[in-house]
User: Fold this.
Amino acid sequence: MKRICRLWLLSGMALMCTISGVAQQIVYANLSELLENRGDTVTTLRVEKRTKNQTYLVGGGDYKITAQGNRWLTRYLRKRCYAVRVDSALYVNCRKMHYKKFKMGTWYAPAIQICRHIYYKMQPVGQIAASTAMPTDVPRLGGNVGEAISAAGLVHKRVYYEIEPETGQTEFLGRKRMMELLKGNEDLQDEFSQEPDESAETMEKYLKQLECNTN
Assistant:
């Protein structure tokens, strides 16, 4: 019934992507749909990069995704949609993401999909993730995202998180996990072992070299 209602909602709000030259836009209601690539195709989405000031003041993901001229679909995108794909770019809804006891906020984070594994890029949250991105003597804020986001600079920092495909839970993508993912490629493991940090910039270089034998 929920599936029927959602399809009815989308049918009156977006056209099927049949026009040549129009970007392919797919919305996914949950993780299962994303992993199986069986979402609904629309054509009215607008992807907007949020400013650093907006992220600092409100938190949440780096991208705001709305449906132009359609407030109902925009509401669905903000509160219920799990992920959105626009051509080759993938975004996950931060409202659906949690790391331990910390909520990721609102709007969307850019993501990389490798087979059934999803890795998304966000500000560091929680003590462990935060400690990898900044010195321990830099003050941190309190609150849901707070313990990790500092007025001194974490608003500019990004790290990667991994979505466990069976449970949907989020884990921090740190040095130990990356070495596991690179197992079987000694050259990449050796190169990664020399990296100075676990920042998103560092991790992304190796994520893009992984193949579909991800464990």
About this structure: The chain has a mean pLDDT of 82. The first strand starts at residue 25 and ends at 28.
